[in-house]
Fold this protein.
Amino acid sequence: MGDATGVVEEWDDPRGVGAVRADDGRLLDLQCTHLADGSRTTAVGTRVTFAVAPGHHGRWQAVAVSPV
C-alpha cells in the first residue's frame, strides 16, 4: 500500500508500541522500530505519514512512520 496519513492515538513508551489512527479510520499497530527518524519514541497526537504493511498475527501495521 502507498503512503497514508494519520495521528498517533496510543503510545506506551516503556514497551515501545502504540497505534496510529489512519485518516480513513483504521487503527494500525505501531512499533518503535518503524519510526523513520530512529528516535524509538513518539507522542500521542503527533500527525504522521506512514506506509501500511502486514504485521504480527495477521494485523496491519504502520511502517516508515514520520511526523508531518
In short: The chain has a mean pLDDT of 94. The domain at 4-67 is CATH 2.40.50.140 (OB fold (Dihydrolipoamide Acetyltransferase, E2P)).
